[in-house]
Amino acid sequence: MIKRFFSYYRPYKGLFILDFSCAILSGLLELGFPMAVKVFVDELLPGQNWTLILIAAAGLLVIYLFNTALMAIVTYWGHMLGINIETEMRRKSFDHLQKLSFRFYDNNKTGHLVARVTKDLEEIGEVAHHGPEDLFIAVMTFIGALLLMFTVNVNLALITACVVPVVTWVTIRYGERMETNWRALYRRVGDFNVRIEENVGGMRVVQAFANEDHERRLFADDNQRYRETKLNAYRIMAASSSLNYMSIRLIQLVVMIAGSYLVIDGQLSNGGFVSFLLLVNVFVRPIEKINSVIETYPKGIAGFRRYTELLDTEPDIADRPGAIDVKSLKGDIRYRSVGFGYSGDRLILRDVDLDIPAGQTIAFVGPSGAGKTTICSLLPRFYEVQSGAITVDGVDIRDMTLSSLRSQIGIVQQDVFLFGGSIRENIAYGRLDGPESAIVEAARRARLDEMIDALPEGLDTIIGERGVKLSGGQKQRLAIARMFLKNPPILILDEATSALDTETEREIQQSLAELSDGRTTLVIAHRLATIRNADRIVVVDATGIAEEGSHDALVARGGIYSRLHTAQHGEKGRKEPTSSTAHGTLSL
Ligand SMILES: Nc1ncnc2c1ncn2[C@@H]1O[C@H](COP(=O)(O)OP(=O)(O)OP(=O)(O)O)[C@@H](O)[C@H]1O
Q: Membrane-spanning regions, if any (predicted)?
């Protein structure tokens, strides 16, 4: 792990060398000061020569100024080194999140992932900056001060050295406990994030159910757990700092008494005594810093471990070596003996065979949970087939790069996800380099133009988080506009428009029909009336594909579809539910 951590220094070798050498030089100067005081007290003071005293003071002033400059360099450029490494790690985590597949996101909560990219990496910059140099300087100061102490007085130096094993033991023992604790704390922060995100995101549901008290209780539990974990950290810090404080003070006391005895006995000069006391101060400085060390480093290490855990999560869907970039597909789709399950032991699809010629519209109907959405999710490789293969224009989709395959597929779903920016930004998401004229045209074709014209800010109107300021129909239209702009040869429509009123639904259906014109379209149907004109209807049930054919052929066949149709026909209502009641989405 240490090797891996240090690999992050590679691009910043120059900064590291600058920071490290300035820090060492500054540490050496600190060490030199007590020895200068010894010369001052023992040699200059008895001579009572003011010229020499002032020259020595001027020399010290120059050293101080030099040291000030060194410290400024360490503070600024050293932190720059730390923050560069932290930024790089944050970038890598975010990049990695973009590569992980739907399966990963099915099993991980958003709040936990947000914490990994934010809070977990908070201390890493500090550790990256101070870690190596503090460690080196601490060791250098320890050893340097100790050696100098031996030159001043061997017995006093031996007494002082007794503190070393105590401090080493405290640092290692409490450091390990602290790291475990910080890891737990980061998990708690993740829990917090999840709770707050779900609560705030679902506030409309919380308030509609008047479940605020329930939410408060859940939050209070998380809050309490966080408090306890943090308190535990402070307990560890209290124990370690007390032990250190006591050992430092004891050493200073013993040095005071033993040093006084040696001075009175004539074995130690006054200057030697003063410089020894100063050396003890330099020697114990790293020990006094133990609290911040014990807080910062284990925190950084815990964060780094969680960071590497995320980075080591292999994306289960990635480009094969030699995968090709497909440019413009015709959209001839084939499923060959496709088998798939979300978890290893339970297959949702078995031996699914489908031929969807380019430009045709195929609709999937069937009971809720039969696997209609799943069939469609396999085409953009949101999940990978477990057996069999899917080809587009005769090429296995696993032999295409993911991004080029997905650029050829457009998805419009009932539960549209919009970003919190403007209408323009949301439409442009379909093609980021789309010119203004194409955005306006896409809005027109999705019949958003009237609404946009009526808004004072027009296309620049901010639509609120996830588009809360838009109606259901407007969101659908925006998603359709995005697809007109993207203009993919293949479309997947989760055409669940039951949430909309009759008129809006009719208009959206018209827009969807226009959108699918000339494209290979897979429709996840929730109402039979809307798919009557599909080129082919596929009935999916627990056994796989149960029936296939045109509306008329399937009605004539007298099977499942025919029964569904009769049931709906009997209802006479315009809204014609299939046996499906829940509306699956492509879970985007
Ligand atoms: N991400 C997932 N992880 C695990 N199981 C899932 C996941 N998505 C769907 N399933 C399961 O797979 C089965 C098929 O679901 P799918 O959403 O494909 O059905 P559907 O026919 O589209 O249903 P609906 O008409 O309700 O939308 C269901 O049993 C469902 O519980």
A: 12-33, 53-77, 135-152, 243-264
